[in-house]
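COURSE: Structural Biology Practicum
ASSIGNMENT: Worksheet 4, Part C
STUDENT ID: 0417
INSTRUCTIONS: Below are two proteins. For each, the amino acid sequence is given first, followed by its structure token string. Answer the questions at the end about the second protein only.

PROTEIN I
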Amino acid sequence: MSSDRLREVKNKGKFQTFSPETGRGRDYSTVLPAHLIHDLICTPSEVAKVLNSLDVNKACGPDGVSARLLNECYMELAPILARLFNYTLSRGTLPIDWKSANVVPIFKSGEQTAVDNYRPVSLTSVVVKSLERLVHNHIVNFFLIISYYVIINMASDHFAHV
């Protein structure tokens, strides 16, 4: 095997991105799916799944809505919250009440009368935490799709040269 061919085979496993200046590498924008992260829409079934998985023993936030209420009424609340979440996402802002939290001291260890033995914990709205979980799920799924397309195309590039 020639030294040029050996260098080419060694470098084949390295990830290259497309550079318009040099015209080298692979332009993955042409092979990625049309679905974009800004297309995030929460469906009632996704909301129901998140609400049904809530830990009912967690404390509620300043809005007073408990995880138990959301969990036990998830089927009835899912369509309503899906509409509310989609409206919020389309506007790109959260209601001011959703940004507030109750800060409570939690005892760590040691002498209970010493202030240094407590840490602050912010209790935020369980409804907002549910929205955050939905956004998290969409972002993770988005990157899984992207990585799938990149891996498939890297593999097809590799086998095209073998």
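PROTEIN II
(use this one for the questions)
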Amino acid sequence: MTGQKYQFDHQQLKRKPIYSRWWFWLIVGFVAVIAIAGVTGGNSTNNSLSKSDTATAGSSVSADAKATDDPNEDDGWRLGDFTLDNVQFGLSVDGRVTNEQDVERTGSFTLTFFQNDHVVATTNGFANQVEGSSTVTVQSFSTDKLASTANLIVAFQSISDEGACSSGWCWLGSG
């Protein structure tokens, strides 16, 4: 067999078009699924809590708290009704907060949500230049999401700055 030459036929190597290969369609399907999931938010369920999951500030979080402590009140601010909504990137809370003092104040608020003695979400929001004895709607946000509001308890905390506003700017912690 020495000296025998083999000829290579380039026509035998003619490749199939890419769209006729099985792995091409696998990749197209995978990309389509990812694109659809991105457009729809990743799942087909409704992210909003139901209307029955609208909550009001409730009982004290600590079992040792005095009966005179109002869990809806902190440092002259009072939390009223609020609504919860699971949005694309976490939890959104719209709450009514009242400045119970007679002076204009700015406040930063933290709502900590407990379920079965565990912290399940914490939201933060603020109100700027709230007139004395007036109520405002405060939006607070978190990256946490709630699965349900069953047995939900909220703790309301505030940090406020009384009368430290000048030229339309209010800074927390300024004196």
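ANSWER KEY EXCERPT:
Q1: Residues 51-165 form a domain with the Immunoglobulin-like fold (CATH 2.60.40).
Q2: Residues 42-48, 50-67, 163-175 have pLDDT under 50 and may be disordered.
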